[in-house]
Specification:
The protein has strands at 24-30, 40-45, 49-55, 61-63, 71-72, 88-91, 97-102, 122-128, 142-152, 155-160, 172-179, 193-195, 198-206, 215-223, 239-247, 255-258, 275-277, 283-285, 293-294, 303-310, 313-321. The chain starts with 23 loop residues before the first strand and ends in a 10-residue tail after the last strand. The strands form 4 sheets. A 10-stranded mixed sheet has the order 6-7-8-11-9-10-15-14-13-12, with no helix packed on it. A hairpin with an 8-residue loop joins strand 13 and strand 14 (215-223). It is an all-beta fold.
């Protein structure tokens, strides 16, 4: 950053001619050994390859995974899919990392124009298993599907399947961005977020109107581990996506945390105590002499809402406690 000089260059051997040019559009870094410094990065390119990079202590980069791509994005017809959107990383519940990314593009002349048979684009959740090797294949992933589109309780919703992933044999999941057999050119060009165990993404479908540019932004809430639906909207209980609005492409999922109704944080703010019970079941301040049993709702005194920003307003998605979220033993 001081003088703009190149620290390192990486040759992936995946370049192409002018008609089939390549380039990296997005990179995300992770601290996989938890020492406070990034040591691994993931990069997606225009030929659909997801690369894993090792970051040395001096900041130089080198290809990891024996120089092979971690994943190669291809559709059901084995045609390459471009990776131009952002990448997100989260811990896998067994070991290693989950890497989240999608395919599609919206930066060249003509990308906003409708085509008769657009390529189906996909959102992926791929497991980078440190005990594995080689390139993960699409056939190694569990497919989830978009079943249909309905209007429920005033929302435009899409149903998403909830099939399990067998982690003894599979390496993640994917979701084709087509509603049943209908493909309108929906694509992923934004940046995913992982919140409260969910992969939250926005997709874009161009309306193809030169006089009124823009399109539909659909908001998906998917279980980060399985890709299953995880959106509590509508009466059917099947929803995994909601129409967030129309206009320019959304660059990130519209998520906000609203302030709590009370500023009282039990055990933190003065006068806001954590309550307990004595041996006779009487209410008391936890920690006082004879008050050594927490009440079931002791930590529920202050809650903040996590909301999705839709065209109809903010819809609560989850709640968070205002109190201590975690702790670490120092000695």
């Amino acid at each position: 950053l001081e003088d703009g000089s190149v620290i390192s260059e990486i040759a992936t051997g995946s370049g192409g001619a002018a008609a089939d040019s390549n380039g990296v559009m997005s990179v995300a870094a992770a601290d996989t050994d938890f020492d406070g410094y990034p040591d691994t990065a993931y990069a997606g390119d225009l030929q659909g390859k997801l690369w894993k990079l090792a970051i040395a202590s001096d900041g130089s980069l080198s290809l990891a995974n024996s120089g092979l791509p971690l994943f190669a994005a291809k559709d059901d017809d084995n045609v390459r899919q471009m990776i131009t959107g952002g990448i997100e990383i989260a811990l896998h519940h067994v070991r290693g990392q989950m890497v989240f990314f999608g395919t599609g593009k919206y930066f060249e002349v003509g990308d906003n124009a409708p085509v008769a048979n657009p390529q189906v684009q996909t959102f992926y959740g791929v497991w980078d298993d440190p005990d594995g090797s080689g390139t993960v294949d699409r056939g190694d992933l569990q497919p989830q599907t978009i079943g249909g589109q309905t209007t429920e309780d005033g929302y435009e919703l899409r149903s998403v399947s909830d099939d399990p992933v067998d982690w003894s044999s599979q390496k993640g999941w994917y979701l084709n961005l087509a509603v049943g057999a209908t493909n309108r050119g929906e694509r992923f060009i934004a940046t995913p977020r992982v919140e409260l165990g969910n992969a939250i993404i926005t997709t874009f479908t161009s309306l193809g109107d030169e006089c009124d540019p823009g399109g539909e932004n659909w908001l998906y809430v998917l279980n980060a581990i399985t890709g299953a639906r995880s959106l509590d909207l509508g009466s059917s209980g099947q929803s995994g996506a909601v129409l967030a609005g129309t206009g320019a492409p959304a660059v990130a999922p519209p998520i906000v945390t609203t302030p709590p109704e009370t500023e009282c944080r039990p055990g933190i703010d003065a006068g806001c105590e954590i309550m307990g019970e004595d041996e006779d079941g009487n209410s008391c301040v936890y920690g006082d002499p004879g008050c050594d049993t927490l009440t079931p709702s002791a930590g529920a005194g202050c809650m903040a809402d996590v909301g999705l920003v839709l065209s109809t307003g903010i819809r609560r998605f989850a709640t968070l406690s205002c109190g201590r979220q975690s702790w670490r033993q120092m000695q």
